[in-house]
Hints:
By secondary structure, this protein is mainly α. Helix content is 70%, strand content 6%.
Amino acid sequence: MINKAGAQLSRSLMAIAVSLGICLILYIALVSPLPITLLVLAIFLGLIVMGERSGGIEKIYAAMEEHKGEALVVAGIFALLLPLLVSGNNYLLHVVVMGGIYSIIALGLNFQLGSTGMVNFAPAAFYGTGAYTSAVLAVKFGISPWVGILCGLFMAALLGIVFGFPALKTRGYYLSLVTIALQVIFTLMIINTDWLGGPNGIPGIPGYEIFGFSFRRPLEILGMRLPYQTNYFYLVFLLLSLAALAASRLYNSRIGLAWNAIEQDEIVAATQGINLTKIKLLAFSIGAAFAGVAGALYAHYTSFIGNEDFDFNKSLVLICMVLLGGMDNVAGVILGSLLLTIIDEKLRDFADYRMLMYALILIIILIARPQGLLPKRNRKYQIKQDNNEGYNVTVTAGGK
């Protein structure tokens, strides 16, 4: 019993230490100059590779899965304290807010790209749909942003269904080409529609308010006056937590199993009674809904939106976030989104060479770690027999 309790405590401490370590890596990457950020990322990548080769990474995954609650508490405390840690730099807080918004989009994109194996090159179109829907309702009709965020979710999901039904008649490269066409059409429609602001965008978008308190006002905590970005930080990460919970639930549901079955082999999935069109449409519409929520958040946070915020380049960056973090892995997608947002912002000092350096960093990382920082794991189930004995069954239909 003592040995068992000691092993349990050891795994609990390991989960807490890993969660704290990841939080510290993100914090150092955020507050440090670019060379140190890249050095920290390289060390983190090296530790993951060494852990995979030695087998230690599996012990860490097992400890994190068994003591998920403790790990989440550490991450939650870090998120609550982060605005206090960077209170002297509004820009760093803005970067974290944008990272949270992109994480929500990436979680939705992961349903298509990671779980179902459908390469969607138009996540920015759904992102823009949510942003423009909420912005137009607020600016032109005076509708509350809180209602606008629900309307943005609905319109993005509707676009996912309307577009997805004919698009999913194709597969593979042809589906990718169709999504590229959607992204181009969306961008051109924004530019050429004066009612949507045209090339000048939509300015003067109001912020969120709750009980008369505007999110554009500074926040005071324990006598400390924090910038208004703090309000959006807590809002964004509250919604990110809900999105991550929903994504995890979907992953472990029968829908998640169906998505993985389609990703492995559509023909076999169909012979097992899976309705391919229905399940694929769910991936498209739910992923689009996530992007719509993020778009509404972005519009009311920045108070201005334009076509350059939702163009094809933005779609490529969002896809890279899923690939870097690890497809079909909720924690990996969030980690990849936050890291790439930080790196992208730090590269702004290089102006014309920014995208070149961004591409080189991605190529190096993906060569060293082609499956992503935190790749998907094999599913494991515990099947109970009548005699209360159990045995593990490993299913290779994707994993977390």
